[in-house]
Amino acid sequence: MSDSLSDLLGGRRGAIDATAPPVAFAAAWLVTGSIGLASAAALLVAVVVGALRLSRGEKVTAVLGGMLAVAVGALVVLYTGRAEDFFLIQLLTNIASALAWAVSIIIRRPLLGVVVGLLLGQRLRWRQDPDLLRAYSRASWVWVLLQYTLRTAVFGLLWWLGNVAALAIARVALSWPLVALVIAVSATVLRKSLPADHPGLRHPRLPAPAEPPVQQSGPPS
Prior knowledge:
Blueprint: H1 2-9, H2 12-32, H3 35-55, H4 60-80, H5 88-106, H6 111-119, H7 130-161, H8 164-173, H9 176-193
Helix pairs in contact: 1-9, 2-3, 2-8, 3-4, 5-7, 7-8, 7-9
């Protein structure tokens, strides 16, 4: 199941692409000491990465979203004058993601199930399967704790310390390597949470449709 979940969620190439602009920013800042040049380097790399992603046939909206995140980071750091603030968007995004995933579990719409259900074309039909709902809820906690909470703690500490080099290293280490680990662990939790006879993620057990009541004819008058 870990392979199937990894195939569904994907993201290795996208995660690697997303780390290139922050690494370029940190490298340029460490070499030149100029926030302006570092921001320009990050934006240039973001444009190159965006062009490569478009050439691979990725959606324009996804590409523009990635470039917008880099642009916002550059604007923030140019405004504050603090190099570590380039990573502030990443910190805030992970805080918001941790809260969103936790709330989704509480309201019984775990986001892992929502995402996988959409990718499989099931929409929310999987919620009618109590076993899948329970499994997705448990597996979604892996994403809350192992990915978003861990990232928040690491990025928050390094941002508070103002360590730009360490922030760039953490940005790489906590991208695809962490995502791969989270996918593997959450897939294991999914598998162990489902009964042995369950047909799997692609085949939710839907309740049988209710049979119409049998019309009983009364005695002839």
